[in-house]
Amino acid sequence: MTTKWITKRGHKFQIKNGLSKNNFKLKPNLTEMQKQSANTSITRQGRKSMPLRKIENSLGKNETIYDYGAGRGVDYIHLLATGHKATACDPNTELGKCKIHKSDVVISNYVLNTVRPGIRDKIMKDIASSTKNRAYITVRRTGDKGTPSPDGYITSRNTFQKYFTPEELKNYTKHYFGKCKINKAITNGDSSSVICSDPKCFNCKH
To answer: Is residue 128 predicted with pLDDT exceeding 50?
Structure first.
């Protein structure tokens, strides 16, 4: 049995046998729209996400990593436990407000599919403005379609979902980066994923 303790932002976390035993909690008094996004998060019972498992060997220990929209922080805690220079945000949890944070690598797993168009565009501008080297972006490709809503669906769990085919995700993210390609290691029946580089400048001072 292997146990590792991590202290971050005043919280103490335990990694035991490869599982995160405690995570960042949801904020109280979320709006209905925030709940729709926050409740989409899957805790995975402390397991790191499939996208992180697929890319972690390509993340250098000297690279700074920004987990944008980290939910309850499971991947973030695992990154810290393995010695990575990681930072994370999520406006719906104790991790706090997301903003531009210059980092070598930005990761955003299952975030864009949970938010409405205007918020989605702001998130992509933040990701592009934060990325120095490359960004890994993964979204849901299919799932519970429930009740049609503008640009997506309200699911049976009262969450919002916008599903992207791999090509749709690639074409959307290319508005914010010079280069985006489908990440075939992650793209599968449930998920679409891209690797983006050459970010466009959205927070430049002229």
So the answer is: yes
